[in-house]
Amino acid sequence: MNKLTICLMLCIPLLAGCWDQLSFRDLQVVTLIGIEGEKGDVTIHFSFPSHTDDQVEYLTAKAKGYSFADAKNEINVRTSEVIDISQLEVLLISEETAGDNLYDSLDNLYRTPRNRLTSNVALVQGDMEAFMTQNNTKGIGSNVPDFITHLLKTSDEYSLSVNHDLQEVCTLLFAEDKDLALPVLKIGEESGHPELAGTALFKGKSATGTMLTTSESKILAIMEQNTGKFLRGTYEVEVEGEEFFMTIEYVNGNKNWDIKGDQVNMSYDIEVEIEEFPHGAVLEKDRIQEIEKQLSEHITADMENLLEILQETGSDAIGLGYEVRAFHQDLWKKGDWNETFSELDIKADANITIKRTGIMN
């Protein structure tokens, strides 16, 4: 064994460690970030935990800059420890900021390998500071990031809105065949804490300013075949000349999109379960068929209403562009897809089948 080999073996223990290792003692771990402002005048809000006397208190700080990175660097002169966003849980963006090119506000987050790309993303209405401080957290504790994370998870599970992480947001911002949609939060007037307001529609990299209600968001989930664990809706039906409100739960569904030239026929076969029907049992076949017909008419009308909203805003949130790009190149190459989508003649039809009627039957 020569001297060079011996020297190399003796140096091996000195190579242990990670090149990008950082000690948490030197960092202030940020779990919630809020972005507002416009290009050239950006304000970033940071929320981070502070441990004192066996308690965790969430502190906030904010800084202004020309961009996200500039404001992030500026905040380090106002905190005792270096801000670290690699453990970010929730990213909030004001509606006004999202109305410009959203990627401009997110670019820095994608350029650092240590950053977490599974962070939840949502838009907010109103004052950003109301979502960062503890003044509006009545009944939810001091851990605002955790509360918002679970709020977004619940809205996704119950198909009240969509929930995308940072990675998915980037993919959809650059996608040419489908547009992004993000949940919108507000501060509840009665509760005083963050609540779901609806779903924001995007066209390209910018928010359109149009927001779907939670009911419209459920129809969006059905039409793009991306429902959560639960999806429930209530409709008025007429039985024996009397009006009743019936609550149904989505069980399963299949779609068939027939594309011929500029005409698109969207057909959906949907199976549902009756969750509430004050009239009583619905065993009779004729009664079930009549209720199915009424439900089909209601949901078809909801689908056509959603399509009208999407086409008016030029937002293909249902992903029709996926199928057009794959199988209808003549239509895809007609021009900008958002413009083409707005001009298509799209019809929707829902065929509802009551699969289960509950234990009463």
Automatic annotation (TrEMBL):
Residues 24-187 form the Spore germination protein N-terminal domain. InterPro entries: GerAC_N, Spore_GerAC-like, Spore_GerAC-like_C, Spore_GerAC_C_sf. Residues 198-358 form the Spore germination GerAC-like C-terminal domain. PROSITE patterns: PROKAR_LIPOPROTEIN. Keywords: Germination, Lipoprotein, Membrane, Palmitate, Signal. It is found in: Membrane. GO terms for biological process: spore germination. One of its GO terms (cellular component) is membrane. It holds the Pfam family Spore_GerAC. Its main location: membrane. PANTHER family: SPORE GERMINATION PROTEIN B3. This is Germination protein, Ger(X)C family. It comes from Bhargavaea cecembensis DSE10. The lineage of its organism: Bacteria, Bacillati, Bacillota, Bacilli, Bacillales.
